[in-house]
Design goal:
385 residues; alpha/beta; Chorismate Mutase Domain, subunit A; D-Maltodextrin-Binding Protein, domain 2; Alpha-Beta Plaits; six-stranded mixed beta sheet; five-stranded mixed beta sheet; 12 helices; 39% helix; disordered N terminus; binds the ligand C=C(O[C@@H]1C=C(C(=O)O)C=C[C@H]1O)C(=O)O; phenylalanine biosynthesis; ACT-like_dom_sf; isomerase; Chorismate_II_sf; ACT_dom
C-alpha cells in the first residue's frame, strides 16, 4: 500500500492519506481484517448449521418411526428461552428469535415439511403471523375464510392453521371463537404479533373518499379515521389484502386501504402513513390450531370452553373453583351457544397447564359444575411481540 503513515498524526501540509472510498489506509486495513474475521465466523456458522441439520435429521427419523409431530412448540419455547439466557441481552432478543425461527423452519423442511393454512390472500396479518411462527421454509396456504382454515386442518390438507383470537384494543375475534365450539381442533401454540397498520393508496391523500379494510382494523383505527377522514365511506372487506386490491382497482373513485404495509408492495400502492392504529402497542394474539396436545413449558396458559346450567350461582361456583386453587384467570368471555336462544358458552383462559397442578385438580372439580367442559389447549404463554 502507498503513502501509509502508521502511528503519525497528519500535519496541515501533509493531509491524511485518503483512498477513493474516503477511508484512511489504517481504516481500510482494519475493515479488511474485521471482514476476514467475519468470513471465518460465517464459515464456522455454516459448518455448525450443517452439523445441526444432521441431528435434526436424526430427530426426524425417530419421530417418523412413532408418527409423532414435527412441530414441538414446548421444545422450541425451551430452546428460545435458553438462547436468550446465553445471549444475555448482547444481540437484540427479537433479532436472535427471528434468526432461530428461520433455523427451526429449515428443520421442519429437513424433517419432511409442514403445510400451514391461514386467512389469505398473501399479505394479511395472518400471513405475517404464520411467517413469524413457521418461517420461510414451510408451505403456507392462503384460505378464503377462518372456516376454511379450520377445514383445511380438519381434513388433513394442512398440519396446522393460524387464526387470530383477540386484539389488544378490539378484543375477541368472535368469528374464530365461535368456530372452536364445534371444532375438535386444539390450540397448540400462540403467536403475539405487533399490528402496525398503514394507510395505502395509489392516489394522493387529499383524493381519498373511501377507506377499505377488515372490520378488526377499522376498529383498531376508529379514532384516527374520525380525526383524519371523518367523511370517508368505510367499507368492510374479508381481509386487509382484499382491501388493498380494491384500493388499487377503485383508485379513480378515491379508494384507499388500511392494513399490513406488505400489501402496498404486492399490489402497487404507496404507503401514505404508517402506524395509524389508535393504540401504540396494538397487538393481536393468534392461535396455532392443530390436532396435537402441547406438553408443559413451565409458563403456560390454558384455554377452556364451558357451558353451565341456568341455575343461580353456577357461574360463581365456577369462578370460586379457580379462586380456591389459587389459579389466575386471564380472560373470561361469553358467546351465544348458537344451539338454544339466550344460552351461552364461556371462553376462559387460565394460567397453568391442564396436565399440571393446581390446574389439573381445578379442572377435575370444575367438571362437576359444567354441562360441558372442553379444553381447547394448553400452550406456552410467551409475550414476544
Ligand atoms: C428438531 C426438532 O423438531 C422441531 C425443530 C426444532 C429445532 O430445530 O430445534 C425444535 C422443535 C421442533 O419443533 C425437535 O423436535 O427437537
Amino acid at each position: 500500500m502507498e503513502n501509509t503513515h502508521h502511528g503519525e498524526s497528519p500535519s496541515p501540509d501533509t493531509p491524511a492519506p485518503q483512498q477513493k472510498n474516503g477511508k484512511t489506509d489504517e481504516q481500510t486495513i482494519a475493515l479488511t481484517k474485521a471482514r476476514l474475521a467475519i468470513d471465518e465466523v460465517d464459515a464456522q456458522i455454516v459448518e455448525l448449521l450443517k452439523t445441526r441439520a444432521q441431528w435434526v435429521h436424526e430427530v426426524g427419523r425417530i419421530k417418523k418411526a412413532d408418527n409423532s409431530p414435527i412441530f414441538v412448540p414446548e421444545r422450541e419455547t425451551a430452546l428460545l428461552g435458553k438462547l436468550n439466557r446465553l445471549n444475555a441481552g448482547v444481540l437484540p432478543e427479537s433479532s436472535l428469535q427471528a434468526i432461530y425461527r428461520e433455523i427451526i423452519s429449515c428443520s421442519f423442511f429437513l424433517e419432511g415439511g409442514l403445510t400451514i393454512a391461514y386467512l389469505g390472500p398473501k399479505g394479511t396479518w395472518s400471513h405475517q403471523a404464520a411467517l413469524k411462527q413457521f418461517g420461510k421454509s414451510c408451505e403456507l396456504i392462503p384460505c378464503q375464510s377462518f372456516k376454511d382454515v379450520f377445514d383445511m386442518v380438519d381434513r388433513g390438507k394442512a398440519q396446522y392453521g393460524v387464526v387470530p383470537i383477540e386484539n389488544s384494543s378490539e378484543g375477541s375475534v368472535t368469528a374464530v371463537m365461535d368456530l372452536f365450539v364445534t371444532s375438535s381442533l386444539k390450540i397448540c401454540a400462540q403467536i403475539n404479533l405487533n399490528i402496525r397498520n398503514s394507510l395505502m393508496a395509489a392516489i394522493p391523500r387529499e383524493h381519498i373518499r373511501i377507506l377499505y379494510s377488515h372490520p378488526q382494523v377499522l376498529g383498531q383505527t376508529r379514532d384516527w379515521i374520525l380525526r383524519r377522514y371523518p367523511n370517508a365511506e368505510l367499507v368492510e372487506t374479508s381481509s386487509t389484502t382484499k382491501a388493498s386490491i380494491l384500493a388499487k382497482e377503485n383508485a379513480a373513485m378515491g379508494a384507499a386501504s388500511l392494513g399490513c404495509p406488505l400489501a402496498a408492495e404486492l399490489f402497487g400502492l404507496n404507503i401514505l402513513e404508517e402506524d395509524v392504529q389508535d393504540q401504540a402497542c396494538n397487538t393481536t394474539r393468534f392461535a396455532v390450531i392443530g390436532r396435537q396436545d402441547t406438553r408443559p413449558s413451565g409458563r403456560d396458559r390454558t384455554s377452556l370452553l364451558i357451558r353451565i346450567q341456568h341455575k343461580p350461582g353456577t357461574l360463581a361456583e365456577v369462578i370460586d373453583c379457580f379462586q380456591r386453587h389459587g389459579i389466575n384467570l386471564i380472560r373470561i368471555e361469553s358467546r351465544p351457544s348458537k344451539a338454544i336462544n339466550w344460552e351461552y358458552v364461556f371462553h376462559i383462559d387460565a394460567v397453568g397447564h391442564a396436565l399440571e397442578s393446581p390446574l389439573r385438580e381445578t379442572l377435575e372439580e370444575l367438571e362437576q359444575h359444567c354441562s360441558m367442559l372442553k379444553i381447547l389447549g394448553s400452550y406456552a404463554d410467551t409475550d414476544v411481540v
